Amino acid sequence: ISATATGDEGVLECLKHNYKDQEILSLHYGDLIQESQAMELKDTIEKEYKDLEVFVYAGKQPVYFYLLSLE
Predict the structure, then answer these.
(1) What kind and span of H or E run contains 8?
(2) Burial letters for 5-39: b for 16+ Cβ neighbours within 10 Å, e otherwise?
(3) What is the pLDDT at residue 5?
(4) How far apart are CA 14 and CA 1, in angstroms?
């Protein structure tokens, strides 16, 4: 568990602690996140984690900025 200033930082922090050679990240962004912001985060993740394929979905959840699934 960690606290960050932004949802994007939270996603990166989560990956730092939980990524262990998975191949796929499903990134569902909430209704307070713009698609362009989610795509920028996708690009950042793919630069840092070269073997991780990131799929972005408009989850439209009202409470959470992002929901993640590593496979």
Answers:
(1) helix 7-18
(2) eebbebbbebbeeeeeeeeebebbbbeebeeeebe
(3) 95
(4) 8
Q: How far apart are the first and last CA of the chain?
A: 20
pTM to 2 decimals? 0.93
Distances (CA, A) of 14 to 2, 68: 8, 9
Q: What tokens appear for 23 in the block?
A: 């191949």
Token pair listed for 9: 């930082």
Alpha-carbon gap, residue 63 to 54, rounded angstroms: 22
- At residue 67, what is the residue type? L
- Token code pair at residue 16: 């730092």
* Per-residue model confidence as pLDDT tens for the chain (71 residues): 789 999 999 999 999 999 999 999 999 999 999 999 999 999 999 999 999 999 999 999 999 999 999 99
